[in-house]
Specification:
heterodimer; A: 197 residues; alpha/beta; 6 strands; B: 643 residues; 28 strands; 38% helix; 18% strand
Chain lengths: 197, 643
């Protein structure tokens, strides 16, 4: 099985850990995986993307229109990933918003959940929204947002066994492993418990 | 990670990035020294080795030239050493590079250079492969993290075989790609350092000596070519060449994109992976030419491999010079950047490679089926993210104080030239500060500012630079300004680390292991009489110091000192909050704090301004700024920060 996932977010949201846990969980199950992190000036709150490739291919970048799934850790950042989404693919979008300078001065320049959902649907894809920011705050650590989104991703598309992902989270977490695992399961259960059809 | 760097276990597989693979390879190759200057994308190698517990001296030098000179000392004493630098850093080290390459080496000396096609991290878009030919140094260009490991070990062996330095070049994408890598064996290279008198090799005086060194350097490249030829992979599918008559030459990460595109299109073309960009694998290229009539060349930035392919194609078909008789071989048509098929700037992708291959084949290649949206619809949704200072950054307070001082003197950022420099400090160029006018190269701000003033620009000129940049290349221009008796106000934004590349120590960092040289000590030592240190968070004294700086004659240095909050959050945060009864809201305020300070911790909810407690570092600049005194510190409810 060859699956491509493109994740988008902003610096500091933990897109590297997100990709690393996913890829290492796959390796744990003796499957091939690689990823490329496109960071840019990420320390300064810039856009970050990651291309995760499940399968033998090692080419770092996913071609346009070839991603089965895209994941946005920040709502508006989904626009940095949509060019990669294939028709019929799914966009998992965190409802968390990090509104940048210009959009704070002119709030209408920041997209709404409805406008994103409508655009993706019109293009022949499907957008699923996840309250990942709320989950992370419930867990008590805003930095667990990435793991909530990973849980949501694996609940939606079982790329890898959730238990393998949890073991990998424990191994790879530099800090607050318990909270990361808790956020992962909350994201997982959120998707499992909601009927989107 | 440390375990992956230092543990044995030949044949073990691990998920490594290109940078991690290089670090591992250094341990496998028995390297004694890894040194460099932080520069994305190469920075992690030295850091990983420093933390690994391996018996390797891994450290940062004050700049790249010093790093290379120090490493040459190791190499000339017979030890193996790695130098890591980004493309701009290679320019700094270039003077020594050419000289060391002419002299040759003893212990293996490998330079790991990181190019950044599409300049994701800023600076000049540069193709460092030119240096290979310029300096007569062989260059290996890996395509995958596995290549990064294998080629690093190979580069050390090659360097010792030819007795000259070897380049290893990677791009941002490759350095940051994680994929499965098979580890090799750990070799213990136990050596005793020794160095012998040999002025024919180690000095440059006299044209006969220098001429001989040049010949020897060229001979080393040729010998490297013989060793490297087989590392360039030639794929000749049976029969496939005769159908399309199109072949492809690709190097670096472009080879990977090519494989992806061929795979998706179900194509198997004759193709050559160029692993040694210098010297070019001539024999394999000739074998490819025998199969095809058109050759597409895929590489990022300049047409270096393309020019080599074109030269080789001409040679392939030209009559032999000795007999004058025709070879009867047709010259293959070379397709690439010269005819605009492959982009000359930016980085490649599977998509641009697909488009180039389609043009070379003269037919459409299927594209993956993306969303049915016009490109503008996706592009139009992107929200621009202003590059600005982190919440609580001392630089925000410094530039705020500078602008305040200008205004109190009846000036503004529009009529005061601030020559900026490399690093986080340059973010003062952006809104809402618009204060830095220029950014050129490390340490440039000082001499550029002095030059603008001496040229007679009728505006006050100031230089502003960070502490890392000051020590890297700021000392000679400061000395020059003092010796020339220039009028030069200098602001050093000292946040105690090289923050933008990820908190590396400078020689002025508090708590560093070696001797600490502060900026004020260095500046006074260079003859600067007036050196002042201020805390940027104490706005009023900072503004007073800025006003003195802007009006005083001679060379004056003002050090604005507070550690980077991204690295060392203040241990006690006194939170600030907005008193909503006093705050008139975004629309009611003449210039809101959000607009004036661009602090990411100031958020908008409807028309109200709130402070996001999870981001606020409690620097208090907003409470100082607020014209209505609506933002106040909550002294009584101070809380200890959790993380």
């Amino acid at each position: 099985m060859s699956v491509n996932v493109v994740a988008a977010g902003i610096g500091g949201q933990g897109i590297v850990l997100f990709s690393q846990v996913l890829a290492k969980a796959l390796l744990r199950e003796h499957r091939e995986a690689s990823f490329y992190v496109h960071a840019g000036l990420s320390q300064l709150g810039g856009s970050v993307r990651s291309h995760v490739r499940v399968g033998e291919r090692v080419c770092p970048k996913v071609p346009r229109g070839a991603a089965d799934l895209v994941v946005a850790l920040e709502m508006a950042e989904v626009f940095h990933a949509l060019q990669y989404l294939k028709k019929g693919g799914k966009a998992l979008v965190s409802e968390d918003t990090q509104i940048p300078y210009h959009a704070r001065l002119r709030p209408r320049s920041y997209p709404t959940r409805e406008s994103i959902g409508e655009l993706v649907a019109r293009g022949g894809g499907k957008a699923v929204f996840v309250p990942a920011g709320r989950i992370a705050r419930e867990v008590g650590e805003v930095l667990t947002l990435n793991m909530a989104m990973l849980g949501a991703l694996l609940a939606d598309t079982p790329l890898v066994d959730a238990e393998s992902a949890v073991l990998t989270i424990r191994e790879e977490s530099p800090r607050f492993a318990d909270k990361n695992v808790e956020a992962f399961w909350k994201g997982y259960q959120y998707i499992k418990g909601v009927d989107f059809e | 990670m440390n375990d992956l760097l230092t543990a044995g276990g030949t044949g073990r597989e691990a998920l490594l990035s290109g940078n991690q693979a290089i670090a591992r390879a250094c341990v496998e190759a028995g390297v004694s020294l890894a040194i460099g200057f932080p520069g994305t994308p190469t920075t992690p190698v030295v850091e990983m080795l420093a933390r690994s517990g391996a018996e390797i001296t891994a450290r940062w030098a004050v700049n790249e030239k010093v790093a290379l000179d120090f490493a040459a000392g190791f190499s000339w004493a017979g030890m193996r050493s790695l130098v890591t630098l980004k493309m701009s850093g290679l320019n700094v080290a270039a003077d020594s590079l050419l000289s060391v390459a002419a002299s040759g080496t003893e212990g293996g000396l490998v330079l790991y250079v990181g190019d950044d096609p599409n300049v994701y991290y800023g600076m000049v878009e540069q193709d460092s492969r030119h240096y290979a030919r310029l300096a007569s140094v062989p260059m290996l260009c890996p395509s995958t993290p596995q290549d990064m490991l294998t080629f690093t070990v190979l580069a050390f062996d090659l360097s010792e075989r030819i007795r000259g330095p070897v380049f290893l070049l990677a791009t941002t994408v490759l350095a940051n790609t994680f994929s499965k890598v098979t580890l090799g064996e750990l070799r213990r290279v136990r050596r005793r350092a020794s160095f012998s008198f040999d002025i024919d090799r180690w000095t440059k005086a006299g044209s006969a000596r220098c001429g001989r060194q040049h010949q020897e350097a060229l001979a080393r490249v040729e010998e490297a070519g013989r060793m490297l030829e087989e590392k360039n992979i030639l794929v000749l599918p049976p029969g496939a060449g005769s159908v399309e008559k199109v072949g492809v030459v690709a190097t670096g990460v472009a080879w990977d994109y090519l494989e992806e595109v061929l795979d998706r299109a179900g194509l198997d073309l004759p193709r050559l992976k160029v692993a040694s960009v210098h010297p070019f694998p001539r024999e394999r290229a000739a074998r490819l030419f025998a199969q095809v009539s058109r050759v597409l060349v895929l590489e990022e930035l300049d047409p270096i491999v393309e020019d080599a392919v074109r030269a080789e194609a001409t040679r392939y078909s030209a009559p032999s010079t000795s007999s004058g008789s025709s070879t009867g071989r047709p010259c293959p048509v070379v397709i690439g950047k010269d005819d605009g098929v492959v982009p000359r700037t930016g980085d490649l992708s599977p998509d641009s490679v697909r488009a180039a291959l389609a043009q070379a084949l003269g037919r459409e290649l299927p594209e993956s089926g993306g969303l049915d949206l016009a490109p503008g619809e996706i592009e139009g949704g992107k929200v621009p993210r202003l590059l600005t200072f982190c919440p609580g950054c001392p630089h925000r307070s410094t530039y705020y104080a500078l602008i305040r001082a200008m205004r109190e003197l009846g000036r503004s950022p529009a009529d005061t030239v601030v020559a900026g420099d490399i690093g986080c400090t340059i973010l003062g160029m952006n809104e809402p500060f618009n204060v830095c006018w220029t950014e050129v190269s490390m340490g440039n701000s000082l001499a550029l500012a002095a030059g603008l003033a001496a040229a007679g620009v009728r505006k006050p000129v100031v230089a502003a630079l960070g502490d890392g940049t000051f020590f890297h290349a700021g000392l000679p221009p400061l000395l020059d300004a003092v010796a020339e008796g220039a009028d030069l106000p200098v602001i050093v934004l000292d946040n105690n680390w090289m923050a933008m590349t990820g908190m590396q120590e400078t020689v002025g960092s508090e708590g560093r292991r070696g001797a600490r040289v502060t900026i004020e000590k260095a500046a006074r030592g260079l003859g600067v009489r007036s050196v002042t240190v201020r805390n940027p968070y104490l706005v009023r004294p900072a503004v007073r110091a800025m006003k003195r700086l802007l009006t005083a004659p001679g060379v004056n240095v003002l050090v604005m000192r507070a550690p980077c909050v991204a690295h060392r959050p203040l241990p006690w945060i006194v939170p600030v909050e907005v008193d909503q009864r006093r705050c008139p809201g975004m629309e009611g305020c003449e210039r809101s704090c959000i607009e004036a300070l661009a602090c990411p911790a100031l958020v908008r909810e409807g028309d109200r301004v709130l402070i996001a407690a999870e981001y606020c570092q409690g620097c208090g600049l907003c409470s100082h700024y607020c014209p209505r005194r609506a933002i106040r510190r909550r002294f009584l409810r101070a809380r200890r920060r959790e993380r």
